[in-house]
């Protein structure tokens, strides 16, 4: 090739570079213009789309937004009815939007909401109020329509009795800030309860608990009613979902009464058991676990924010508590994942899925130091799914060694999947290479 040909090629390359630079600049400017046009046109596009929506579809959208509004102080119904004449007409013709009654409403607004709600069930929100009796007098005639009731003031129960508001035939959901004596109310459809403290002020009337399916107890500070917690729990014959929050608990011990009268360990099936522990609560969590030993949940969720999280996994006999086919740990403090996993599979053959959300977990290399036995590895391989999420101290070498050991058997003899989710030190390039070695049983999300 002559020097003339080389010069021609170099000139052509330079021309191509200049053209590419011009094209890139043109692309940048066009991209910027497109983004600007899209931003400016978006309100008109939305307006045109809304205009084309039939009123029936718009009403459905409003109803969905109403459910999403939750406990917010701003009422969605009022906001949407002030947008336009059409929105107001649709909102007024949609009774569901007006079914939530707050005691912060004025009397006229309460009556207007009740009028617009038709005959639908009502959600009654009673936060802190200076005059709960006046509020209850306004809504007294609607108590037969209440499906949801939130009680914050301690005097609410007394005032309701005083006004004769004890028949709540549609009530399905109750939240409270003080123990409630349900025996004074008629609540044949009550199935969900959320509140601070034990549900009953005494163990009497526990027959009412048999209808409950979803219960959340927030155990906080001193409350003498907790002595009846065991009796209360064992009276819930149809329980499906049970949650506890333990925080700052310093009250009396749980009254266990006669253990022989209670169901056998792991004999009562429920769908979900969730326990959240804040602070060093071992003196309380251990006896609580003793009370819960009769349950056989499909899923156990344990959230432990304590300086000694492992101690909060044991009952009063020092036995490992979590029991279920799916176990989920959320522990922001330091914990040995390897030891926890081995203890879990050693104690319970029922375990099939284990999730660790443990940002401060020790390195996975601990398994080498602990020298796991062959039987331990076989138990771990019997799992269907093992997930490590937000395990920010795990290194790529840890994951590689653990995964290679875990998947050294044939696919039919090992876990279906090992999932690595959002672990800071693990790159996708590394996981792609590891996937080439172990196959599709390794899954990840960066």
From TrEMBL:
Pfam families: F-box-like. It comes from the Eukaryota. This is F-box domain-containing protein. Residues 51-102 form the F-box domain.
């Amino acid at each position: 090739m002559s020097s003339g040909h080389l010069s021609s090629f170099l000139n052509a390359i330079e021309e191509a570079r200049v053209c590419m630079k011009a094209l890139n600049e043109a692309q940048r400017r066009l991209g910027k213009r497109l983004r600007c046009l899209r931003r400016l046109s978006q309100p008109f596009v939305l307006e045109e789309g809304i205009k084309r929506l039939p009123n029936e579809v718009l009403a459905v959208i409003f109803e969905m937004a109403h459910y999403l509004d939750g406990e917010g102080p701003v009422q969605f119904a009022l906001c949407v009815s002030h947008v336009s004449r059409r929105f107001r007409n649709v909102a007024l013709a949609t009774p569901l939007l007006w079914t939530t009654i707050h005691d912060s409403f004025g009397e006229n607004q309460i009556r207007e909401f009740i009028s617009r709600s038709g005959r639908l069930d009502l959600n009654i929100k009673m936060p802190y109020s200076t005059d709960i009796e006046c509020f209850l007098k306004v809504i007294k005639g609607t108590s037969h329509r209440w499906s949801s009731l939130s009680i914050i003031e301690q005097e609410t129960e007394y005032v309701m009795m005083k006004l004769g508001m004890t028949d709540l035939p549609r009530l399905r959901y109750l939240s409270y800030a003080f123990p409630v004596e349900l025996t004074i109310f008629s609540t044949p459809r009550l199935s969900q309860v959320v509140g601070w403290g034990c549900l009953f002020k005494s163990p009497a009337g526990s027959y009412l608990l048999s209808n409950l399916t979803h219960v959340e107890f927030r155990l906080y500070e001193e409350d003498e009613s907790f002595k009846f917690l065991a009796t209360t729990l064992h009276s819930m014959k149809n329980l499906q979902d049970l949650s506890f929050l333990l925080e700052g608990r310093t009250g009396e011990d749980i009254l266990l009464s006669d253990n022989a009268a209670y169901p056998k360990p792991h004999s009562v099936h429920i769908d979900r058991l969730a326990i959240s522990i804040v602070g060093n609560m071992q003196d309380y969590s251990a006896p609580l676990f003793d009370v819960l030993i009769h349950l056989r949940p499909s899923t156990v969720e344990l959230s432990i924010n304590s300086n000694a999280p492992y101690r909060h996994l044991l009952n009063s006999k020092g036995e490992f508590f979590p029991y279920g086919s799916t176990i989920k740990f959320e522990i922001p403090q330091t914990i040995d994942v390897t030891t926890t996993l081995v203890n879990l599979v050693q104690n319970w053959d029922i375990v099939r899925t284990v999730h660790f959300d443990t940002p401060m977990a020790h390195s996975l290399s601990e398994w080498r130091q602990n020298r796991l036995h062959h039987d331990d590895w076989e138990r771990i391989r019997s799992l269907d799914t093992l997930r490590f999420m937000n395990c920010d101290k795990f290194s790529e070498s840890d994951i590689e060694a653990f995964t290679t050991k875990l998947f050294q058997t044939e696919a039919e003899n090992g876990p279906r999947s090992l999932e690595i989710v959002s672990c800071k030190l693990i790159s996708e390039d590394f996981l792609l290479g590891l996937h080439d070695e172990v196959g599709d049983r390794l899954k990840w999300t960066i």
